[in-house]
């Protein structure tokens, strides 16, 4: 334990020193490095797949479920996707070249507010090897060093990926130390990251609610909180039937396991009474399991009665909570109580009601007549994203490259005093 | 203790509800309210001064030092200053009316990124009654509710100020509950604020290092860290003598107790040898007590030898640490080790050396040939400030009204699914 303590701290120190060298490299130097990493990953796919097999074997022993095993799995195609992801990052604008604003004071002082890298990013995530590559690409492009701590079930895969990245970095101007990997499976090693404020500028936890909660509670370093989405759609009295049904089905079934997927639908009672047959047949067609409130459960065949935790839960499956409400006010009150301020939608043809919803609901993204599945960096045109922030400070919603930067005031004078 | 627990939580809940109502008020409604508060403060100055006397009496009993007593003191003139400060805030642009960006996706979705209030701000500060008024003004103008927890030594003064604010709010559209004051002197009451994440969106600690450290370590709510400034000025070999001396004296003596005041001067050895007589006579003239490194202490009459803690300390007095260095690299390394990333300056006529310093030194504000005293919202043209952020996330340097807002994506469609 004492040795892992020294280790993590030493890694963080090295990352900080490397980050300083990286922070002043040109955009070209950084892009070239990303392209070399992409090529090396593709060249080494069979090594990566071999190492991945070790994790898969252990996962099988531990009887992980199929969704988990699928996220863990590497294939040649997926390795190519990693590489192409990096090539996409190369195309994104380098945020650190930007002068945010510039002005001259009456006393002649010239003030320039410039965008600069954060320094060192600590990335804590679950057993998804793709995050190892994605996060590294975004960190390096924005001039930041990164410390990676992936889920222990993907240890061999991540180790292999990082070894290829390190080999590649040897051929570039980016110091190898700019990418640090915590190879320990000891929880204590992760927790050491939480307080290394002297070396790490921000922690980004990416994964389930309990991982994020642990980091937020224990860290003294600033945290960029990502992603738990208890997403609601409110079907207003004046909702168009086709739009409502299409959006419910899309938001629930397109990718049920992601954070912008629908979890609870709030339906205005009159609308429900008028359209329940169509709604029920659609829900059946897509194998959606309904957890209904007291009234709904009586009218929806095969549904079970929702208990308190159904309203708060992120199912991440084909389960759907259904609550009948009298009006938009009841819907908003429910969302305020149970929502996680991620993505919330209203379906209505009434523009005033829509405006009220867009203004009053407090979330990273609020929608009128569209699927909540669009809360995503690439879908919204931001390019790649490091995660979706559900906090209000620094960055809210999908976080692209600018979220990995800060600003600095550069002030030039000729002897001004106050 | 149980009762204070319920109390603080209830106050936070009320603030949240009031904040929602406040968040949708017009700029005019908010400005009118601030003007009424300003008038009421002026009208009630004798009540405020009476209540302030209770704090002053207690402070005398406790033998607080004269600087502390001065910060605590209210006078008719100071109350007028509070009111005029609010009238200045009225003139500032309302940040919440701003559309940050707007675009249409290929699928026809219209995306609007709008600036909205954070919600509820928790302000934790020391015995400075002016913060009660300043912070309230900035919070209300930006559409936020505020929970105030001031230092116990100013309890009677703060209570009185808040009672006048509440009276005034009764005549406005802003709910009285939008300004909550924690009247308890129990430390436990303050600590409850740290974890009321459901109701409070951000904590802003303003005061000395230990107050800030406590909040950062114990809070699970995001914190906007303000202000400890261990400020350095590096006098380069090619520094102009007059600029260097003027800036050292200004940055050290103009207001020694503030965070942008100079604490350590790093002097290139050749420059020091050439100009030490002038420098020493200036330092003497302004009663500056020098803590010099091994070399400097031998050459500066009346100086004492600096120990390790001198390099890390924020003196906030007429003490000054002096270290002789060989070159800019040694200066930067020293700043990296001991600096608090607040304000750092270089004095030189060499443009390349200046550029290197501005680029490589990591701080909220970096200066070339100017006094560090300009790191201040009003001096830089931001208008009033809620504090100076020394963190990198969300806001860096002086924080004006926009730092008290977040953004929200409002997305409108006609049935788009993914």
TrEMBL record, chains A, B:
E.C. code: 1.2.1.41
GO CC entries: cytoplasm
Pfam families, A to Z: Aldedh
Catalytic reaction annotation: L-glutamate 5-semialdehyde + phosphate + NADP(+) = L-glutamyl 5-phosphate + NADPH + H(+)
Residue ranges that the Swiss-Prot or TrEMBL entry lists as coiled coil: 31-58
Record bears the keyword Amino-acid biosynthesis: yes
Pathway(s) it belongs to: Amino-acid biosynthesis; L-proline biosynthesis; L-glutamate 5-semialdehyde from L-glutamate: step 2/2
Domain Aldehyde dehydrogenase, residue spans: 5-299
Molecular-function GO terms, alphabetical: glutamate-5-semialdehyde dehydrogenase activity; NADP binding
Compartment(s): Cytoplasm
Highest taxon of the lineage: Bacteria
HAMAP family xref list: ProA
Family listed: Belongs to the gamma-glutamyl phosphate reductase family.
Protein name per Swiss-Prot or TrEMBL: Gamma-glutamyl phosphate reductase
Gene name of this polypeptide: proA
């Amino acid at each position: 334990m004492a040795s892992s303590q020294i280790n993590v701290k030493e890694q963080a120190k090295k990352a900080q020193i490397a980050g300083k060298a990286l922070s002043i490299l040109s955009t070209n130097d950084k892009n070239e490095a990303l392209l070399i990493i992409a090529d090396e990953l593709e060249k080494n796919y069979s090594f990566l797949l071999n190492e991945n097999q070790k994790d898969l074997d252990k996962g099988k022993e531990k009887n992980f479920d199929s969704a988990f095993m699928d996220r863990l799995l590497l294939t040649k195609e997926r390795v190519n996707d990693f590489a192409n992801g990096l090539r996409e990052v190369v195309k994104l604008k380098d945020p650190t070249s930007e002068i945010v604003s510039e002005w001259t004071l009456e006393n002649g002082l010239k003030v320039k507010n410039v965008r600069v890298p954060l320094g060192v990013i600590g990335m804590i995530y679950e057993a998804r090897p793709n995050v190892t590559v994605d996060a590294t690409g975004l960190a390096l492009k924005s001039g930041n060093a990164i410390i990676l701590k992936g889920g222990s079930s993907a240890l061999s895969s991540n180790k292999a990926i990082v070894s290829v990245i390190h080999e590649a970095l040897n051929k570039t101007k980016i110091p190898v130390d700019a990418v640090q990997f915590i190879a320990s499976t000891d929880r204590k090693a992760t927790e050491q990251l939480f307080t290394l404020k002297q070396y790490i500028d921000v922690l980004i936890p990416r994964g389930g609610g309990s991982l994020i909660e642990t980091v937020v509670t224990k860290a003294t370093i600033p945290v960029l909180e990502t992603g738990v989405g208890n997403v609601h759609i409110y079907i207003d009295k004046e909702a168009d039937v086709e739009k409502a049904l299409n959006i419910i089905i899309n938001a629930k079934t397109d990718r049920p396991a992601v954070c912008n997927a629908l979890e609870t639908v709030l339906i205005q009672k009159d609308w429900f009474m008028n359209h329940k047959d169509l709604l029920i047949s659609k829900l059946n067609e897509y194998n959606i399991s309904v957890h209904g409130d007291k009234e709904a459960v009586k009218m929806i065949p095969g549904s079970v009665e929702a208990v308190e935790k159904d309203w708060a839960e992120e199912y991440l499956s084909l389960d759907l909570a259904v609550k009948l409400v009298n009006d938009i006010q009841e819907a908003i009150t429910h969302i305020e109580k149970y929502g996680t301020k991620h993505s919330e939608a209203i379906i209505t043809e009434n523009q005033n009601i829509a405006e009220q919803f867009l203004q009053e609901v407090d979330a990273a993204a609020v929608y009128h007549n569209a699927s909540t599945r669009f809360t995503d960096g690439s879908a919204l045109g931001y390019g790649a994203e490091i995660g979706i922030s559900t906090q209000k400070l620094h960055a809210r919603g999908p976080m692209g490259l600018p979220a990995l930067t800060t600003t600095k005031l550069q002030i030039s004078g000729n002897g001004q005093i106050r």
